[in-house]
TrEMBL record:
It is found in: Mitochondrion inner membrane. Signal peptide: none annotated. One of its GO terms (molecular function) is cytochrome-c oxidase activity. This is Cytochrome-c oxidase subunit VIIa. The keyword Mitochondrion applies. GO terms for biological process: mitochondrial electron transport, cytochrome c to oxygen.
Length: 61
């Protein structure tokens, strides 16, 4: 007793799969950019500003 082949499964759901993957990818990218990357960049910038202020105050003394 042969098993019936699955015909047209890829074609039927292709655009749904592409749309969902694009939406999830873009959402994940924005979540990383605004939730992780910009916060770490601000922390790094704060460190360098603090370091530069310490160096400037050490030079002026």
């Amino acid at each position: 007793m042969p098993i019936a082949p699955i015909v047209g499964k890829l074609r039927k759901r292709f655009w749904l799969d592409v749309g969902c993957s694009m939406a999830l990818g873009i959402t994940g990218g924005y979540a990383y950019w605004y939730g992780v990357h910009l916060k770490s960049l601000a922390r790094q910038e704060d460190f360098y500003v603090k370091l530069e202020r310490e160096r400037a105050s050490a030079r002026s003394e």
